[in-house]
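Subject: for your reference before the review

Hello V.,

The reviewers asked for a structural picture of the protein, and I figured it would be easier to keep everything in one thread rather than splitting it across files. Below is the amino acid sequence we used in the manuscript, unchanged from the supplementary table.
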Amino acid sequence: MPELPEVETLRKGLLRKTKGRTISKVDIIKYKKADRKIKKLSLAKIKNVRRRAKLLVIDLSNGYSMVVHVKLTGYFYFQPKGKKMIDKVTRVVFWFKDGSALLFEDVRKFGWIKIMKTKDVEKYLVKCKFGPEPLSKEFSLKKFKEMLKKRRKSKIKPLLMDQCFVAGIGNIYAQEACYCAGILPMRKVESLSDKETKKLYKCIIKILKLAIRHKGTSAVDYVTVEGKKGTFASKLKVYQRKKDPRGHKLIRIVLGGRGTNYCKVCQK
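And here is what came back from the structure prediction:
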């Protein structure tokens, strides 16, 4: 957390609020995980904001890019001109020439910012060994079936969270996808029928798209660049729930090191 929907929402917000703005200076506030080469960004203009898995890539006019992982409690906040919103969790401030600013907030300091030449970003992302983007054309049902055949002994929910298998899905949306598909999260891939595989594939896409539409899930500290909470929390069926929408009591287990809720009635 944040996962693909939250990071994609941040990407859209950053693109909308910062594209074309010129950075005048950068302040790092007691934050060791911000690359000190960040000073190279002064007088650079923001050209584009991309996402790969849970990473944000901010491309600049000077040939450099910022690669950012917000981790558990990080997010960006856009501060309009004339407002002073810097607080105790502000770690990096990107000041723009017009007086506005972009704040990187991180309560627990797990996030990081790397600076690299834009031409080197793709090589860096390849080294990360991310799986396909679940909302891309590459992630077809045929592709999904081929991927599953190679991981037949894996348990379904931890596999969905494996960034080398498929990019961007974490604990929230893996649980929700399993519930949507009516599949127990601890089942092995080899136990899935063709019908169940199709249902799981459709549920992954459906839930991620719906979560993006609702600007993500604000379960911890995540907010949009406007400082607003995502509204998908009200749509969650099992994550951090005691009962499912049908009133069934949910069972909580630890699976792959993460807390996992499921319904023994609705999921088989």
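For the response letter, the relevant points are probably these. Residues 4-127 form a domain with the N-terminal domain of MutM-like DNA repair proteins fold (CATH 3.20.190.10). The two ends are 27 Å apart (CA to CA).

Happy to draft the paragraph if you're swamped.

O.
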